[in-house]
Amino acid sequence: MSAGDRRGAAGFAFRSLPQKTFSCLEDRDIRDRLLKWSMQGRITAQAFSFDQEFKPYQKDEFVMAFFNDQNVNSSLKLLSASGQWTTLGSKVTKIEATGVPCTQTSMSFFDRLYSEGVVRETGDIVKCYDDYYDDILISDELRKVLLLEDSDHYDIFSQLDRQEFLFCLFKHLCIGGTLCQFEDVVGPYLETTKALYKDLVSVQKDPETKEIRITSTVFRVSAYDGNGLCYPSSKSHEQTFAYLAVDPCKRHAHMLYHCFGGSLFTN
Questions:
Q1: What is the DSSP string of 205-225?
Q2: Which of 49, 130, 224, 228 gives a 20 to 30 Å CA spacing to 210?
């Protein structure tokens, strides 16, 4: 099949880039953390290239073309209901692509956790009485900030802050999978968030101001086939996610995928 035959309505054709590695997911310390957080073996990142100029307003056409491109369809990884890695391999009839703001270029974004008493100067996370939110155990002030709108510190992050890709990654890592063993200190969450963020998004330095700015556009995506929701999973869960980070300069797209569940020892 020629590239022309594979093009979607927006004219995009894609190629898988299996040689592209995401160093954070190869790092031994991070893999150990992901295992502890019940995410190892359930999280992956993949890279693809595309052949046309991309504009953010084209997101729906782009994502639909992405999922139905033969090269993507045959190589995009997901976990089956039995916990086995497989590929998408189905005709996508509908997609959802929600823009995720991606403007933060510094981890100082999280300094307020220290200044507002959620985390001590030592990095220790302040404990609290146990509570639950949708079966997620909350035993410290950090998870309260992330999940409970009526918590004392919830407002230290605005609604716009909470939409930022950097915040989304941090929250996903803090909550983890089914059997997540929570950290007592915030450092591992911050370090892993930073490493993942750096691997997924692209930056440029403004030649005049010398300021770093992010060039990637990020979407949280899902796909449907004739049977309903098929990606990232047939079951919807806040911790089951797929983020597509599109770099219009390099014409690369990075997909970060995670399916909520118990940690798998193989990847």
A1: E-TTT--EEE--EEEEEEEEE
A2: 49
The answer to whether 76 touches 231, Cβ cutoff 8 Å, is yes
Nearest to 254 by CA among 224, 214, 207, 213: 214
pLDDT of residue 209: 85
| 27 contact partners, CB below 8 Å, separation of at least 6 | 195
For residue 169, the surrounding DSSP H or E stretch is: helix 165-175
258 forms beta bridges with 43, 241
User: For residue 46, how many C-alpha atoms fall within 13 Å in the half-sphere facing its CB?
Assistant: 20
d(CA 37, CA 31): 10
Sign (positive or negative) of CA dihedral 109, 253, 209, 192: positive
Amino acid (1-letter code) at residue 179: L
Written as six digits, the tokens of 170 are 């941090």
CA distance 84 to 90: 17
List the structure tokens of 220.
Answer: 């949280």
The structure's pTM equals 0.93
Per-residue pLDDT band for 265 (boundaries 50, 70, 90) equals low
Instruction: Give the pLDDT band of residue 11 (cuts 50, 70, 90).
Output: confident
- Enter the tokens of residue 9: 């309505």
User: What is the C-alpha separation between 47 and 195, in angstroms, rounded?
Assistant: 16
Does residue 79 contact residue 51 with C-beta atoms inside 8 Å?
Answer: no
* Non-local CB neighbours of 38 within 8 Å, separated by 6+ positions: 176, 177, 178, 179, 180, 181, 261, 262, 263
- Above 50 in pLDDT, residue 1? no
- Does residue 95 register a pLDDT over 60? yes
